[in-house]
């Protein structure tokens, strides 16, 4: 019975885990995503608007990313790093652009001193 009480909190914490990316990992993830992406990952447009290409696109799906601060001594994640993470997520889906992009302000997150959450919609452009 004692083992159950010890294992239960660990199991619950594991379920709360998020796909947190730390700034030091962004370059490695960009290189990995570039291997499967047709266009350069850093050139995928990230737009606040809800349309692109005169509406000639196919929605691939919503994307969300979190960039975190590893320790109290590391710099706080920037909006540019959050944008780069959205570009990586879009490239992994084979997207040409991200629309409806929202980059949040810095907040406290589980397992991180500070983080920045970003969301958007990955789209594939049509001619």
Q: Share of helix among residues?
A: 25-40%
The termini sit apart by 63 Å
Number of domains: 1
CATH topology: Translation Initiation Factor IF3
The CATH class turns out to be Alpha Beta
Q: Classify the beta-strand content into a percent band.
A: 25-35%
Tell me how many strands there are.
5
Tell the overall outline: globular
CATH superfamily: Hypothetical protein apc22750. Chain B
Structural class: alpha+beta
Largest sheet: 5 strands, mixed
Q: Kindly state the mean pLDDT as a whole number?
A: 87
What's the helix count? 3
Instruction: Give me the Rg, rounded.
Output: 17 Å
What is the level-2 CATH architecture name?
2-Layer Sandwich
| Element string (H = helix, E = strand) | HEHEHEEE
Would you identify the regions where 5 or more consecutive residues have pLDDT less than 50? 6-17
Write a compact overview of the structure shown.
The protein is an alpha+beta fold and 127 residues long. 32% of the residues lie in helices and 30% in strands.
Please provide a written account of the structure.
The protein is 32% helix and 30% strand. By secondary structure, it is an alpha+beta fold. Strands 1, 2, 3, 4 and 5 form a five-stranded mixed β-sheet that branches. Strand 4 and strand 5 (112-125) form a beta hairpin. Helix 2 packs parallel to helix 3 (79-93). The longest helix is centred in the C-terminal third of the chain and has 15 residues, at 79-93. It is globular and about 50 Å long. The relative contact order is 0.24.
